[in-house]
Amino acid sequence: MHEVDMTKCLVLSMQEWRQQHDPVTPQVQTVHLQVGTFTCVEPDQLVTTWRAAVRGSWLDGAELAIETVPLVGRCVLCNGTYSPDPQQAYRSPCCNQPMEEIVSGRELRIRSVDYRLPEPASPSATTAPQAPLATAAAV
Ligand SMILES: [Zn+2]
Fold first, then answer.
1. Ligand 1 centre and the CA of 77: distance in Å?
2. pLDDT, tens digit, for every residue of 90-132?
3. Which of its termini does the chain have fewer beta carbons within 10 Å around, N or C?
4. pTM reported for the whole predicted model
5. How far is the CA of 99 from the centre of ligand 1 (A)?
6. Cα 96 to ligand 1 centroid, rounded to whole Å
7. Has domain 2-70+104-117 been given CATH number 3.40.50.150?
């Protein structure tokens, strides 16, 4: 279950992201994902797994918006980019070279997050830029 592992990674990334807002828990509406076609992740299955994983957690109700990124290879001979075809063993159609460089198609990343904070953060002294610390004079 590839998607289950992917979902675990996503939830972990979101927990790290949440810490930026500590101690407030953001209310996440949509997580925008970029998923490369070469990651072998089924977007529909990922959504299903995600919904099950976040149910009852602070991410409950957050939806995934998945943008698929096509697989693009670069030909080692002529440096051109092409759409590798599994039927051609991913070889470049221009020079019939094996796929050695992948330009895109392997990404699984969070592009952006739509969220609301439960209450507007009140300005406080801790967010104000701090004066540089005076350096101690040489002894
Ligand atoms: Zn080529």
1. 5
2. 999 999 999 999 999 999 899 999 999 987 655 554 444 444 4
3. C
4. 0.74
5. 10
6. 7
7. no
